[in-house]
Amino acid sequence: MKKSTQQLYNERILRVLILIQKNLDAEMPLNELARAAHFSPYHFHRIFRGMVGESLKEHIRRLRLERAALRLKHTDRSVLEIALEAGYETHEAFSRAFRSLCGCSPSGFRSDNSRICGANAPGVHYRENGSMAEFELTTGGKTMDVRVEHLEPMRVAFVRHVGPYSQVGKAWEKLCARLGREGLLAGGTRFVGVCYDDPEVTAPEKLRYDACVTVDEDFEAEGEVGVQTICGGEYAVVTHFGPYEDLGRTYGQLYGRWMPQNGRQPRSEPCLEFYLNDPDGTDPEDLLTDIYAPLEPVS
Amino acid sequence: MADSEKIDLYKQYKDQYAAPKSPVLVTLDQVRYLCISGRGAPGGPEFKDKVGALYGAAYTIKMTRKFASLQDYVICKLEAQWWLDGGKQDFADVPREQWNWKLMIRTPEVVGEDELQRAQSVLTQKGKSPRVSEVKLETIREGLCVQMLHVGPYEQENRTIAVMEDFAAQQGMGFHGLHHEIYLSDPRRVPPERLKTILRHPVTKKDHRSSK
User: Fold this and answer.
1) For chain A, what are the domain ranges?
2) pLDDT tens-digit readout, B125-166
3) Helix (H, G, I), strand (E, B) or coil at B149
4) Exposed site from A156, A159, B46, B119, fewest CB < 10 Å?
5) CATH (domain of B22)
6) Whole-angstrom Cα distance, residue B154 to residue B192?
7) A277: nearest CA in chain B?
8) Gap between the Cα atoms of A53 and A221, Å rounded
């Protein structure tokens, strides 16, 4: 009895979190959010805080700031523009808030993290060791095979994981045990990870990740297993070969090299990872993952 | 806790999955597989459907056990036996559409026939893999075999097979039974020249009359 209440709460709070993520720029009144999840507005605040570990306001504020950090990192938009998008009216107010989250100023963060002119960028680099000053021409390792794909929206069953990426296995186990038992892991099922946060921006214990499996219209959410629709549209796609721990490097190349080189900007939607083999019976070096990075339409 | 007890047959029977660059002898006693048989070109429509049906059954059984907190295990790699009609031996002489095969996934002894049946009925109900009803649990005993790693396209296996056959002959033995392959690489993404496949063929002592 008690467990089913717990499940119901999980199910509803997940719905709220997805709603917030999808409407990050809208001012979502508390009443509306509470109603969407069938919580009484009266208790909603407490429930949210209790289950998510921060207040509704803090949660939205943090997500907006983290998105701003990503934009500082990946785009050439001005700090003021990014501040306004994050809901701050002045550069100063944004800087203060940003500093309290990231520990540095927005422009400092940008110059430390900008992927647009990363240290590994291909080109001519000065090397200090050696008897005489030499110039070294690097191509930045092997070339990346990136394709641009249009993805149709996908209906998925998912289990949410909040915490370090190295621990997403538990969410997968829950999801696969439930779906596998019902015969839903056969016949063209796709296994997708939805990554909302950049591990270089968001603290490990707050990283949000959804383990997802594609399902038909008739699948219904229950307890910890929710249902959502993954956003369609244009994505830059690259296959990552090897251990999941190294995914960050491929992300870095995709965002820091391919995007600027091809004049593309990331769209504010989560990244997707399509897992092409089973990490259980596959050597880490042989793992295959398609990374899908959402793209802003070409202007 | 369950994790540490997870069965991994490849680790447990490491010697049976030896993948050396020159041939070795291995002995395979009784080995249990989930299997599905068919005929036609590798990678053709029937082949693909049946690979899907086999994996569908394998994962449904595994996850059902997991849901019930029963003994967990790692799903093994895909394997296949290949043969030609009328005992012919040279695959190059026969069109690929006439090749016979049995796709196999090694499966722990703890998995019962009833679990396969349950998985089949669930998958059939969901209309997920129409060929899943053809999946079987089988025990295969290959005995003494020659085994070697083949690196490169499947089409170039004949070179490796020739090396294995020579090796067998040096030991006074000859091939018998079915050609067996264990697919270590994923042909969807690994370029053909880097594909790794363990080739295995059962052998017996040649008797003098037939060796002439």
Assistant:
1) 2-113, 146-294
2) 988 778 999 999 999 999 999 999 999 999 999 999 999 999
3) strand
4) B46
5) 3.20.80.10
6) 8
7) B186
8) 23
For residue A180, give both structure tokens: 């596998």
Interval A128-183: pLDDT, tens = 333 333 333 233 345 678 999 999 999 999 999 999 999 999 999 999 999 999 99
- Which of A140-149, A228-237, A280-289 has the lowest average pLDDT? A140-149
pLDDT tens, per residue, chain B with 212 residues: 444 578 999 989 999 998 999 999 999 999 999 999 999 999 899 999 999 999 999 999 999 999 999 999 999 999 999 999 998 888 888 999 999 999 999 999 999 999 999 999 999 998 877 899 999 999 999 999 999 999 999 999 999 999 999 999 999 999 999 999 999 988 877 889 999 999 999 999 876 554 43
Domain enclosing residue B131, as ranges: 3-7+16-211
Of B8, B52, B64, the CB nearest to A181: B64
Interchain pair B122, A239: CB under 8 A: no
Q: How many Å apart are CA B12 and CA B10, to the nearest integer?
A: 5
Distance from CA of B208 to the nearest CA of A (A): 44
Asked if A280 lies within 8 A of B186 by C-beta distance, the reply is no
On chain A, the residues whose CB falls within 8 A of the CB of B62 are 180
The reply to whether CATH 3.30.470.30 applies to domain A146-294 is no
For A252-265, what is the mean pLDDT? 81
Q: How far from B93 is each of A33, A78, B170, B174, B176, CA to CA, in Å?
A: 69, 68, 26, 21, 19
Closest CB to A239: pick one of B55, B128, B189: B189
Q: What is the ipTM of this complex?
A: 0.83
- Domain A2-113 CATH assignment equals 1.10.10.60: yes
Interface test with A, best of B13, B59, B62 (most A CBs within 10 A): B59
Question: Which residues on A lie below 8 Å from B64 (Cβ)?
Answer: 180-181
Angle at the Cα of B105 from the Cα atoms of A168 and A291, rounded to 5 degrees: 35
Per-residue pLDDT band at A200 (split at 50, 70, 90): confident
- Cα angle A241, A245, A249 (rounded to 5 degrees) comes to 65
Count how many domains chain B has.
1
**8 Å CB contact of A181 and B63:** yes
- Top residue of B34, B54, B60 to mutate, by most chain A CBs within 10 Å, is B60
Q: Give chain A positions within 8 Å (CB) of B122.
A: 181-183
User: How confident is the model at residue A130, as a pLDDT?
Assistant: 33
Please, what's the b/e burial string for B20-44 (b: 16 or more CB within 10 A of its CB; e: otherwise)?
eeebeebebeebbbbbbbbebebee
